[in-house]
Design goal:
- Strands 2, 4, 5, 6, 9, 10 and 11 form a seven-stranded mixed beta sheet that branches. A four-stranded antiparallel beta sheet has the order 1-3-8-7, with no helix packed on it.
- The protein is built from no helices and eleven strands.
- A hairpin with a 5-residue loop joins strand 5 and strand 6.
- By secondary structure, the chain is an all-beta fold.
Length: 117
């Protein structure tokens, strides 16, 4: 059974930085597309960034140039470095692991990021 545990969220002032981590277990981590998604109050969950098994990355336009996704297959962990945070980045951030984009995959419980303006 896949388990994803996010950490690193918190309260930060606008312009600040946070680094989210997601530790995976119960899965062949290196074979999974890993992603970060977020959901703000009253809004649908949206893609933030994904990273493939080969290290190719994809970002939402709203975070390009500010966020960086990376993975450490030896530690079964995916990271999201978030810089120049804005109030509109405030959301519950979820980690996702899936074998391909055709599947919904597994989700973590989420970690809250709150950016004060």
């Amino acid at each position: 059974q896949v388990q994803l545990v996010e950490s690193g969220g918190g309260l930060v002032q606008a312009g600040g930085s946070l680094r989210l981590s997601c530790a995976a277990s119960g899965t062949s981590f290196s074979t999974k597309i890993m992603g970060w998604y977020r959901q703000a109050p009253g809004k649908q969950r949206e893609l933030v960034a994904t990273i493939t098994t080969g290290g190719n990355t994809n970002y939402a336009d709203s975070v390009k140039g500010r966020f960086t996704i990376s993975r450490d297959n030896a530690r079964n962990t995916v990271y999201l470095q978030m810089n120049s945070l804005k109030a509109e980045d405030t959301a519950l951030y979820y980690c996702n692991a899936r074998p391909s984009m055709m599947f919904s995959g597994a989700w973590g419980q989420g970690t809250q990021v709150t950016v004060s303006s």
